[in-house]
Amino acid sequence: VAQPEPTPFRIPAPAAPTALAEGAATLARVPAAFVPNLGQWEHPARFVARIGGTAVFLEEGGFASSVPDRGGEGAEGTARGATVRMRFAGAGPCEIVGEEPLAGVHAYFLGNDPASWKTGVPRFGAVRYRGAWPGVEVRLYEKEGHLEYDLVVSPGASLAAVEFTVEGAEGLCLDEEGTLVLETAVGALRQPRAKTFEVDASGRRRELSARYEVRGRDRFGFVVPEWAGESGLVVDPGLLWSTFVGAGSDDIPNALAVDASGVVTIAGYTSSPLYPTTPGAWDTTYSGTYEIFVTRLDPSQPPSQQLLYSTFVGGDSNEWAYALSGDASGVVTVAGTTTSSNYPTTPGAWDTTYSSPTPAFDGDVFVTRLDLSQPSSQQILYSTYVGATDDDTAFGVSADPSGVVTIAGWTSSPNYPTTPGAWDTTHDGIWDVFVTCLDPSQPSSQQLLYSTFVGGADDDNVYALAVDASGVVTIAGRTFSADYPTTPGGWDTTYDGPASSLFYGGDAFATRLDPSQPSAQQLLYSTFVGGSATDLALALSVDAPAVVTIAGWTTSADYPTTPGAWDWTYNGPSTTSGRDVFVTRLDPTQPSSQQLLYSTFVGGAGNDDAFAVSVDPSGVVTIAGRTTSAAYPTTPGAWDTTYNGAGINPTDVFVTRLDPSQPSSQQLLYSTFVGGSAAESASSLSVGASGVVTIAGSTRSAAYPTTPGAWDTTYYAGEDVFVTRLDMLPTGASAYGDSTPGCAGPLAIGVTSIPQVGNAAFALTCWHAPVNATGLLAFSSAGLATPFVFLGASVWLDLASPAFFVLPVPSNAVGAAQVGIPIPANPALAGGQAFVQFFWAGPSSPSPPCPPLGVSASAALAVTIQP
């Protein structure tokens, strides 16, 4: 596929508002639909769409766009414009089919003859020309309010035969950057160089350089010098896989887990009786008002087989799942709150009785463990209430390999269960944080291993939890308590926010507890983090040895930042009408004045909220959430650099990667919008190898971007779940091949920044390598579509290349490595390409998970130097 980005029909902005421009702006907010011509129009078009103010006509042998001039009207009051037609030169008859059916139908009552009326006319999100040229398809769709097209080129097809004839343009040329420029009566329409990828039979991708070729006054084609035709070509749009999940009402996912094979599990709650379930799931019948769902998807399967498992869990009232933990065996643990006195529990669980006397108002925590591989009646391994007489809610859960479950949340129950020897057994304030550990393998009376309050005299709320391999618990959230417990030597032991308010004020906190210690020694570390307004930590990540990263939002213009951070200036319009994201890293092992390793704002002039954070072993931070800021920072070459929201209360998802180790101007590795024209928010994320990020959240946008071949590309109603996978490597870096895993799992390869002429800070990274080991970083001028195996490791580089060489590379104490490759400021280097891969020698036992011969390898990267 060769995909020009952006569309060739992007219109210059108007110099001044006009009635025509205002109308076009309104149309731009309407989700595009391709409607088949069933005879309702006397026009040769097979499909018609209106995308923004542009009318699109899909005809036999090509397509046309009627482009308005948004700069004004003609001298006699008539609207000016141009029609640009793209003909498939030399193409024969082809099949034109609609794809991605959209909800709803059209009806056309034209004329006074009922026989000519058309009803039930369907709508499609995309249209494909099959056989436009032999072995070549053309797919058209809407993106960011503009028409886009892909070329899908099969192995053995002739790319030279692909040629477009342009009608309606006054000129056709290439500019100095290789952009195709069409001069028209309404201005220049620009089509930047296409991103092109070669794909082998196993779906592995390798980026190839591509350019346009002007073949005459009105004709152009594509040239891909490195493509020999043995494999297919596919564009890299950045969006690897994206699907809806839902059915007609509100479906809200709050947590996800991704296993080593890329299978995604999500958990949340739904008010949709028709939410999709699978045969053999534990409960396929909806009951209550809000019901929990647990859903598992495999993006590698054909669309109809991607939904591996989906079930309801609940009673006859309400349930909300807020947290999920998955283990290597496929068992998932979910936690949240329920108001159902008949929520399903298991015999021998710690508490099988609902505690609240007012179930319509107060909830109990639930903890439920499911083995999705078992027969339906055996899938719930363990399920219990945890709570007391008032309201109890869990927002975090973690299950260790032995099955011990730790939950954190907040409670208004003075009699919430605690254990002797816990750090604090007395409830303070209205809402207190709790941390509770359960061992389902013990007899019921012995399952409550540890349970404590954490809080002060005012309200304390926890939103995130992490548990390390030694059992140390880290929590983060917001407190209104000036006496929230802090530790001597903590970074900030003084409450900074205003007095208690339900909607305004509060300081973020980060707290670490070791339940294995005597009670007086359990509070290892605790600190406030905040400014003089509102600070709310909603997400948490802990990396070795004990560095704590929190993210959330703040309205404090004086929120603490660090010198050299990416952005140390608050971006909101005021501390009451705007929220900025913050990302803060703390090292509790350092003296207090040195604990704040890194802290930055991220945002625009609107409201920006981070709900999820992940830190990889190299220290790169990934955040996701929602924004109303059209100027939220994005990076060149990101999947979507344009804010999509419109109408009332719109929000776009953002996904952003930062490298705190880089100079401030280079810390923003990748940042993109994801969304449609309505409201969406990302609630959770998972970062995989080589910069692949999976996010989950909810959307009200029918035009939320999905991918062909995803499980469900149709929006239903209300809030629909989305699950989206993005390749977040920066422009010029593309991963291909598979890792030969080491003892810690697949090795991840990445880059620190854009491989660009003059980027002296460019570096290659690897993690999950053997710790404190020496490996090799191999370079080649060519990659392989099919690897060969050496000492049990897959080699994706052409070792016969004259440019092949290797460098020794050390890993650090956490199995991470970084190799600086400064790129000189020489314009002649632009377009140069190298293929790279890491190799390591490490332990060979136990096997598994260690490789039998001890040799592991990363996937490979194709690196193309950018101008």
Record the SSE blueprint:
Layout lengths: L1 E2 L15 H10 L6 E2 L10 E5 L2 E6 L2 E12 L5 E10 L6 E7 L4 E3 L9 E4 L2 E10 L2 E8 L2 E8 L9 E5 L3 E4 L5 E5 L2 E5 L3 E5 L5 E4 L2 E6 L2 E5 L8 E3 L4 E7 L5 E8 L5 E7 L20 E7 L9 E7 L5 E8 L4 E8 L25 E8 L8 E7 L5 E8 L5 E7 L20 E7 L9 E7 L5 E8 L5 E7 L27 E7 L9 E7 L5 E9 L3 E8 L25 E7 L9 E7 L5 E8 L5 E7 L24 E7 L9 E7 L5 E8 L4 E8 L20 E8 L5 E4 L11 E4 L11 E5 L6 E7 L2 E8 L2 E5 L7 E6 L5 E5 L12 E9 L13 E10 L3
Antiparallel strand pairs: 1-17, 2-3, 3-4, 4-5, 5-6, 6-13, 7-10, 8-9, 10-11, 11-12, 13-20, 14-15, 15-16, 17-18, 17-21, 19-20, 22-49, 23-24, 24-25, 25-26, 27-28, 28-29, 29-30, 31-32, 32-33, 33-34, 35-36, 36-37, 37-38, 39-40, 40-41, 41-42, 43-44, 44-45, 45-46, 47-48, 48-49, 50-59, 51-52, 52-57, ...
Please characterize this protein's 3D structure:
By secondary structure, the chain is mainly β. 1% of the residues lie in helices and 45% in strands. It has an eight-stranded antiparallel beta sheet. Strand 17 (195-199) and strand 18 form a beta hairpin. Residues 1-30 and 70-79 have low confidence and may be disordered.
Structural class: mainly beta
Count of discrete alpha- or pi-helical segments spanning 4 or more residues? 1
What is the rounded distance between the termini? Answer: 23 Å
Average pLDDT confidence is: 86
Helix % is: under 10%
How many whole angstroms does the radius of gyration measure?
28 Å
- Proportion in β-strands: over 45%
Instruction: Catalogue the unreliable spans.
Output: 1-30, 70-79
Name the overall outline: globular
Count of individual beta strands? 59
What does the main sheet amount to? 8 strands, antiparallel
Order of strands across the widest beta sheet? 2-3-4-5-6-13-20-19
